[in-house]
């Protein structure tokens, strides 16, 4: 309240200086957090809906601000982008995720999120490939998840990165499919291995006829393009059953397993409780 009052009295310039100061302080906090390894990774199972077996895990970043207390990535990833520390953060998270992946059976894959800004960086593909080499992780264990905003920030740079990654044998998933402006044209302009239907479509698709039709169409579109499809945000048994019936390949959501500090393989439940 004191700060707001001061801004009102002193006007625009001091408010801007306050922002710069806040940014600088935050940047130094963030650097300390990087140095003290306060960033960790949680893992959420990706389940094959035909076999009900876990086929991979998505790595989800966490900032442990105090023991057991985590700040969500929706808050700190955009800030890390703003202060230019996404490359450092991503490398730290990626190394942790690779180490964890080495503990899993060889057919289990790692899905790793890459910020749009970083996807347009020509150093990304070579550094991912060299870290995997160094750790002894085969390229076919990795899937990179990107959102379409990366694809029109700098289409040529994105295309370069995606080609390098795919040539090395790394798979590419188009995340949050359907939420952007041009999801369909991105399907024509770029080559993907997987589409991830955004949670917002899964949330209500059992109760909303239009959403139901959209989800059906995305699944059949993916099928006809020869691209795998994942549904995220599955929380209820009736969502799961319908997605299985529609031929959705992979499922992810609290019903199948929550993100956890160690990979927990999905347990096939014998009795499905309908709601
Ligand atoms: P996303 O890639 O769409 O990841 C899925 C988000 O949905 C995760 O949130 C996950 O915890 C949450 N989720 C999964 N199943 C359910 C469910 O059944 N119900 C509900 N309510 N939520 C579910 P989270 O971990 O908070 O991550 C949010 C976003 O932050 C991610 O969305 C991703 O865009 C970004 N993110 C996370 N980790 C990284 C990272 O290492 N690098 C980058 N660049 N972005 C990351
Ligand atoms: Ca993702
Ligand atoms: Ca997603
Ligand atoms: Ca999402």
UniProtKB/TrEMBL annotation:
Residue ranges of coiled coil: none
Signal peptide boundaries: none
Occurrences of domain EAL (ranges): 23-273
Domain of life of the native organism: Bacteria
Protein name (database record): EAL domain-containing protein
UniProt source species: Rahnella inusitata
């Amino acid at each position: 309240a004191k700060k707001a009052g001061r801004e009102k009295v002193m006007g625009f310039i001091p408010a801007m200086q306050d922002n710069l100061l806040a940014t600088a302080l935050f940047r130094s906090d963030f650097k300390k957090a990087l140095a003290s390894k306060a960033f960790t990774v949680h893992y959420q199972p990706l389940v094959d809906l035909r076999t009900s077996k876990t086929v991979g895990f998505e790595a989800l970043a966490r900032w442990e601000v105090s023991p057991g207390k985590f700040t969500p990535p929706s808050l700190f990833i955009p800030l890390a982008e703003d202060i230019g520390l996404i490359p450092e953060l991503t490398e730290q998270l990626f190394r942790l995720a690779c180490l964890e992946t080495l503990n899993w059976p060889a057919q289990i894959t790692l899905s790793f999120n890459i910020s749009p800004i970083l996807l347009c960086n020509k150093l990304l593909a070579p550094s991912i490939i060299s870290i995997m080499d160094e750790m002894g992780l085969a390229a076919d264990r990795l899937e990179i998840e990107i959102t379409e905003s990366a694809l029109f920030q700098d289409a040529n740079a994105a295309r370069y990165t995606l080609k390098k990654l795919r040539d090395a044998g790394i798979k590419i998933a188009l995340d949050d499919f359907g939420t952007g402006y041009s999801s369909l044209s991105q399907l024509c302009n770029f080559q993907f291995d997987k589409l991830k239907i955004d949670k917002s479509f899964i949330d209500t698709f059992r109760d909303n006829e239009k959403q139901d039709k959209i989800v059906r169409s995305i699944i059949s579109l993916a099928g006809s393009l020869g691209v795998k499809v994942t549904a995220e945000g599955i929380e209820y048994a009736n969502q799961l059953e319908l997605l299985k019936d529609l031929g959705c390949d992979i499922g992810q959501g609290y019903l199948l397993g929550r993100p956890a500090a160690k990979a927990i393989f999905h347990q096939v439940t014998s009795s499905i409780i309908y709601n």
